[in-house]
């Protein structure tokens, strides 16, 4: 199956590199968290002075990936048993795929040290695609990464709205809250720089970790006052419906949970669409591949990339699985896309207080993450338009326009769970399962590394799995958006 003529392909890649503008892929300049980082090649011991250590890298992976609010509902969509299997296998696959991307980066540093050891790399993931497959794959990865960042910013806006409605129920419509949070984000987006995003990332990451831990406690405490059998048998009762309407009512009138969030049963009648929607949500939860090359690039010792990766995913997997199972077991058929609403509806005073605290923290986390996530999209857009480095009115107009596009997308489909499944099915499936094995295979072959038949077969399986996830998940997510539109929140 190996290409007997790899030389022409290498020639094409070299030609692509010559044709690239100097500001694409590599640039000298200050690194994240360091005004003047000096990188020196020292064989296998290559290090970045002032870079991230193992613990700090694990922290950024952990806080960038861990998002547990929709997990109980995702488990409801996939079915309990199949969902648990997915939540066990997906992290293992994600770790291995991330290790492959790390190996791709190490191959590039060894083969082209003048480009990737002594130079600042602004876009490591697209750079890997360029070196592996040429200009087409660089552009494909760039589009996938930026569409992911744009979509995640929309999700952050909607999560902020969902949390403020728990804190201040019935005060304003979703549209007013979206405008409010967009206005809050706007000044930070106007003046945002990589250094500022680093600081905001630390703040949002620390609060996000606190919120995820608190959410598990809130779900356990808030749902423990009634057993599953009681919840399941009273799901359609008048009292339960009234409680949901009180919390979830909007300006257009009360909406029942069955209307707002169509939910499959727990008795094994999971549908094709519900399974892939849930699987896409889980894929979104374990996502992070688009930023992993950047984190590895910023490490003091990029060769140790696997250490923080394994440490962080052990914690992520444990918390994600615990939150999903506990939430589904306690709330049953009533499990909502925003499990905090379930906790808020419980009669337990302690659960009510915890849900309120978690909502306040998640609101701040969403705004911080939204600023950090949209910043690369803004900077890439400025590069394409060749705007000057110094901020002026053109930067402000462009950044305002892009953030207003996020606002428009949130207004069009005002439910974060629908965006999560759509993003998880499209760009994240490609980032997680298609790009890593494909790029590693190409770079390994070009560098003379021999891969075993079993490894090649596994790579092929992951690529096929990623494509199936993308096609089935996208179809199911779009069907869910079109066939079951949410009521107008305004």
Walk me through what this model shows.
With 490 residues, this protein is mainly α. Helices cover 72% and strands 1% of the residues. It has 21 helices and 2 strands. The chain has helices spanning 6-19, 54-65, 71-78, 80-111, 113-116, 124-133, 135-167, 174-191, 194-223, 228-233, 238-248, 257-260, 272-285, 292-297, 306-331, 339-345, 349-384, 393-412, 416-425, 427-447, 453-483; strands spanning 39-40, 47-48. A two-stranded antiparallel ribbon has the order 1-2.
**How many strands, what sense, and barrel or not for the largest sheet?**
2 strands, antiparallel
Rg for CA atoms: 23 Å
Number of helices: 21
Tell me roughly what share of residues is in helical segments.
over 70%
Shape: globular
Biggest sheet: strand arrangement: 1-2
Say how many strands there are: 2
Name the beta content range: under 5%
Overall average pLDDT:
77
Structural class: mainly alpha
Give unreliable regions as ranges: 1-47, 226-267, 486-490
Task: Give the termini separation.
Answer: 57 Å
Listing every helix as H and every strand as E from the N terminus to the C terminus, the arrangement reads HEEHHHHHHHHHHHHHHHHHHHH
């Amino acid at each position: 199956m190996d290409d007997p003529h790899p030389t022409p392909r290498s020639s094409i890649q070299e030609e692509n590199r010559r044709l690239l503008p100097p500001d694409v892929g590599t640039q000298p300049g200050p690194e994240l968290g360091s005004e003047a980082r000096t990188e020196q090649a020292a064989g296998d011991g290559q290090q970045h002075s002032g870079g991230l250590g193992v613990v700090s890298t694990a922290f950024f992976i952990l806080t960038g990936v861990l998002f547990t609010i929709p997990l109980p509902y995702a488990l409801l969509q996939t079915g309990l048993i199949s969902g648990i299997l997915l939540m066990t296998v997906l992290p293992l696959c994600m770790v291995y795929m991330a290790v492959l991307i790390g190996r791709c980066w190490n191959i590039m540093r060894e083969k082209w040290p003048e480009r990737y050891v002594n130079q600042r790399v602004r876009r490591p993931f697209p750079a890997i695609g360029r070196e592996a497959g040429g200009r087409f794959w660089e552009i494909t990865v760039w589009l996938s990464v930026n569409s992911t960042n744009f979509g995640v910013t929309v999700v952050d806006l909607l999560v902020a709205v969902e949390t403020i409605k728990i804190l201040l129920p019935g005060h304003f419509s979703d549209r007013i809250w979206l405008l409010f949070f967009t206005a809050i984000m706007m000044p930070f987006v106007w003046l945002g720089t990589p250094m500022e995003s680093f600081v905001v990332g630390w703040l949002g990451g620390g609060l996000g970790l606190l919120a995820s831990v608190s959410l598990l406690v809130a779900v356990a405490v808030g749902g423990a006052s009634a057993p599953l059998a009681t919840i399941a048998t009273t799901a359609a009762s008048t009292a339960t419906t009234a409680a949901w309407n009180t919390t979830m009512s909007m300006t257009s009138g009360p909406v029942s949970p069955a209307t707002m969030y169509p939910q499959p049963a727990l008795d094994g009648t999971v549908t094709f669409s519900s399974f892939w929607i849930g699987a896409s949500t889980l894929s979104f939860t374990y996502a992070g591949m688009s930023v992993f090359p950047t984190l590895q690039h910023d490490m003091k010792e990029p060769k140790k990339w696997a250490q923080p990766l394994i440490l962080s995913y052990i914690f992520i997997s444990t918390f994600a699985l615990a939150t999903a199972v506990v939430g589904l077991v306690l709330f049953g058929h009533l499990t909502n896309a925003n499990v905090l609403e379930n906790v808020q509806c419980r009669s337990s005073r302690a659960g009510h207080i915890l849900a309120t605290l978690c909502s306040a923290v998640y609101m701040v986390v969403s705004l911080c993450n939204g600023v950090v996530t949209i910043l690369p999209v803004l900077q890439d857009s400025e590069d394409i338009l060749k705007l000057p480095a110094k901020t002026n009115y053109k930067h402000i107009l462009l950044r305002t326009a892009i953030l207003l596009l996020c606002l428009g997308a949130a207004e069009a489909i005002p439910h974060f769970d629908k965006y999560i499944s759509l993003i998880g099915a499209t760009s994240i499936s490609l980032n997680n399962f298609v790009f890593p094995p494909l790029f590693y295979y190409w770079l390994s072959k070009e560098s003379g590394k021999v891969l075993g038949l079993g490894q090649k077969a596994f790579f092929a399986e992951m690529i096929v799995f990623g494509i199936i996830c993308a096609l089935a998940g996208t179809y199911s997510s779009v069907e869910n958006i079109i066939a079951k539109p949410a009521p107008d929140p305004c």
